[in-house]
Amino acid sequence: MAAPTPTTAARAATTHNRPLLSSPRGALAPSFLRLPLLPRAHAQRARLLAPVAAAAPAAPSTASPDAPAAGFVSGKPTVLVAEKLGAAGLALLREFANVDCSYGLSPEELRAKISLCDALIVRSGTKVGRDVFEASGGRLRVVGRAGVGIDNVDLAAATEHGCLVVNAPTANTVAAAEHGIALLTAMARNIAQADASLKAGKWQRNKYVGVSLVGKTLSILGFGKVGSEVARRAKGLGMHVIAHDPYASADRARAIGVELVSMEEAMTTADFISLHMPLTPATNKMLNDEAFAKMKKGVRIINVARGGVIDEDALVRALDSGIVAQAALDVFTKEPPLADSKLVLHENVTVTPHLGASTVEAQEGVAIEIAEAVIGALKGELAASAVNAPMVPAEVLSELAPFVVLAEKLGRLAVQLVAGGGGIKSVKVTYASARAPDDLDTRLLRAMITKGLIEPISSVFVNLVNADFTAKQRGVRITEERILLDGSPETPIDYIQVQIANVESKFPSAISETGEITVEGRVKDGVPHLTKVGAFQVDVSLEGSLILCRQVDQPGMIGAVGSVLGEENVNVSFMSVGRLAPRKHAVMAIGVDEEPSKSTLTKIGEIPAIEEFVFLKL
Ligand SMILES: NC(=O)C1=CN([C@@H]2O[C@H](COP(=O)(O)OP(=O)(O)OC[C@H]3O[C@@H](n4cnc5c(N)ncnc54)[C@H](O)[C@@H]3O)[C@@H](O)[C@H]2O)C=CC1
Ligand SMILES: O=C(O)C(=O)COP(=O)(O)O
């Protein structure tokens, strides 16, 4: 088959008064930056790219027992703050949202309130389980964890509900590290026990002889932000610091004089072990009977991470047998622990009630950090501290902005070309780029193609958070391929192609030689363009809606279609014809600002040379 020849500008309709490239340059970028948190069920599709805050407030769920709180300003989103948050963060939130500070809610009360809230802010004391997302009725868009550990939030359920989870990953690092060091030194010198004894009227100088830290080996398990700050401080105390972390960089460790070692070495050689990994299925009960059995007799354990990383019954056994000489614990499997907890009451155990992040400075910092993240997310911006969505750096975001718009529109076009719309199983996306594959992050683009593919044929609202999940759930397999082009890697992507395999098309010319519905697009001057349909090359700016016609290439076609549209005052924004060869078949792509009526579309179909046509909403 001969290569189709584009004959774009030359064939542009003359009947309309708009320039060929009518979209203002870059006009699409800002809406992309507001994309990930799209209004859902109660929202209009036309508002898909609108920020949540600007949208009318979602109607209270009919299932909700409560009316909106008195004094709330309509039009503002509602943020439920379920645990104590620093004043500066609350002030920021109040500038932007209706803020409901309700501390100490029971699970039932939380479920009852949540359907009236767009965002929820918690610390470690509130369990945000699947029941909370289900009770929200689709309104909850952001969960902000005012701290680091997100083990109290059901991330899978959040993702399935398209709810973004953000945390405050940096503001309490130093506080947690300082608390770790405080527990280490207090434990080594029996500070808590001696303090209690003296206050009880005793003077027990022989009983509370401590151990020195200098020259002792400290094993840090989890060499992340807190772990490395603990390491720095422990080195200052003259300790020999080693660390185990399967994902940490040895160079970063070496830079602060820490050697990364195996788990085995970290456990068998340590005089002190300090825990700083997150609680995950892999770290759950990591310190168990087997692990304690490997440790040096007389080891001392510090836990400022999560109670669940230690098998607490095994720790009691290890303390009783003398394998573990002392433990200092800030966190517990169940918080607060039972009043008769053997572990808490053990005389060789020093405890604090989850105070790692509780300094004045850290709480102010965390409150500001989470308020900013939640406000940004409600505005629809991509949060840098997103926990269940790809984190894409700001500069990458702005560079990819027009391609993100293109990606969604290509997905939207491709699915509308499928006869019947359903039954899509296999979609291939090809990115042609001069960039090395690891220099091009396509997760965002894939999510937007998925959004474009799924939303026109379902009631599901897809965003960056739930795109992969939604595709998988609907049995749509999306594969990605790269074509590495020669040339300058200045532009991230030359073109994006979306192909749907094993389906019939309501516009058979959209099927390529290899049998898939194929659409391809590029970004020109910041504006997304459709540049190929099936085997036909076209060039039409992706705005408004689109009519695709296949016709016998002959003079007068543009005028014929243009005048049918003109009769109904439908403005043509762009027109382009791609043909296989002169006077053979051609595909005409016509961009229209308004949706033509059924009768106008019928009239177009009745133009004798038009063999097939389709109207597509972008
Ligand atoms: N007690 C408190 O008030 C506070 C507790 N935390 C806890 O401390 C944890 C760590 O916080 P950050 O250092 O800020 O997080 P981070 O994400 O910077 O560091 C966690 C490190 O653990 C490592 N890790 C993951 N799996 C591991 C495994 N199986 N073995 C060893 N290392 C593993 C990761 O590679 C990462 O480097 C948080 O997840 C939270 O649970 C944090 C702040 C305050
Ligand atoms: O940030 C963390 O992971 C913490 O454990 C701090 O918890 P909190 O916010 O003090 O309940």
TrEMBL record:
Its main location: plastid. Its EC number is 1.1.1.95. Pfam families: 2-Hacid_dh, 2-Hacid_dh_C, ACT, PGDH_inter. One of its GO terms (biological process) is L-serine biosynthetic process. GO terms for cellular component: chloroplast stroma. It comes from the Eukaryota. Residues 1-23 are annotated as: Disordered. Pathway: Amino-acid biosynthesis; L-serine biosynthesis; L-serine from 3-phospho-D-glycerate: step 1/3. Residues 546-618 form the ACT domain. It is found in: Plastid, Chloroplast. It catalyses: (2R)-3-phosphoglycerate + NAD(+) = 3-phosphooxypyruvate + NADH + H(+). Keywords: Amino-acid biosynthesis, Chloroplast, NAD, Oxidoreductase, Plastid, Serine biosynthesis, Transit peptide. Residues 1-15 have a biased composition (Low complexity). GO terms for molecular function: NAD binding; phosphoglycerate dehydrogenase activity. SUPFAM superfamilies: ACT-like, Formate/glycerate dehydrogenase catalytic domain-like, NAD(P)-binding Rossmann-fold domains, Serine metabolism enzymes domain. NCBIfam families: PGDH. Belongs to the D-isomer specific 2-hydroxyacid dehydrogenase family. This is D-3-phosphoglycerate dehydrogenase. It comes from Digitaria exilis.
